């Protein structure tokens, strides 16, 4: 497949997306991620092993592919940096962008970049942006084609409340708030997956465990100069009850759907009407929490969207 694809994120989703694209024989793949591999990643990020802990995710993922598939004629390039520091010229090189990110800010950044590129080039350069996201046993895939579909910003109100507060892959190296600190403590220092958090089923020793978490949180917050004015036992318990773990099977399904959207666009299997509208569903929801089902629909663009409305004027 003669095209260049940029994969955003080399975590649970990114590893699956990269593997799928390699198996599709895409001619050129770049993958960007600023994080390093941690022990807690290994249950769902299958391109990494114990020996990779502490290494950059992007370079390690590419090394795995090159080692296990040495004869594939694919150009592979890792980037270890913050994707929001890269300019329009960098993104303009790619034919497709597929996201496996766990945060809102970089998605919004890329969405605005591809809109700017389409507008600047008078639609001579249109880069499809396919965004996958998961939250526990639920996930979504959004397909954004600048000038033809709703952009990512148009559907920002569909996000689960608080989704951007706890990015799983940044809490270890770059905690920015108390929620990141507490999640690190209960994941690395005091792994508490077996404890039931409902008040009517708390065991006798749980109060002591909570206090240990609180003490460790104070210590780590001070190490990273994070304000502890709000930090108390009630705050710790509130954060713990909101954390949703990543599920490897949902990562695999969402990654498969993002790559399926990529293939449909690449093979020109999406119809465009005379008025320039896409005749296809561009928003897919997967739900494995309430049974197992998925549905797709066409998400309408917002006429007053701050990012893409100028593309239709």
Automatic annotation (TrEMBL):
Domain of life: Eukaryota
Family of this protein: Belongs to the ubiquitin-activating E1 family. UBA3 subfamily.
Stated role: Catalytic subunit of the dimeric E1 enzyme, which activates NEDD8.
EC top class named in words: ligase
GO process annotations (BP): protein neddylation
Functional pathway: Protein modification; protein neddylation
Protein name: NEDD8-activating enzyme E1 catalytic subunit
Keywords (A to Z) from UniProt: ATP-binding, Ligase, Nucleotide-binding, Ubl conjugation pathway
InterPro entries named in the record: ThiF/MoeB/HesA (IPR045886), ThiF_NAD_FAD-bd (IPR000594), Ub_act_enz_dom_a_sf (IPR023318), Ubiquitin-activating_enz (IPR035985)
Recorded catalytic activity of this chain's protein: ATP + [NEDD8 protein] + [E1 NEDD8-activating enzyme]-L-cysteine = AMP + diphosphate + [E1 NEDD8-activating enzyme]-S-[NEDD8 protein]-yl-L-cysteine
EC number: 6.2.1.64
Gene Ontology MF: a single term: ATP binding
A cellular-component GO term for this protein: cytoplasm
Domain THIF-type NAD/FAD binding fold intervals: 2-288
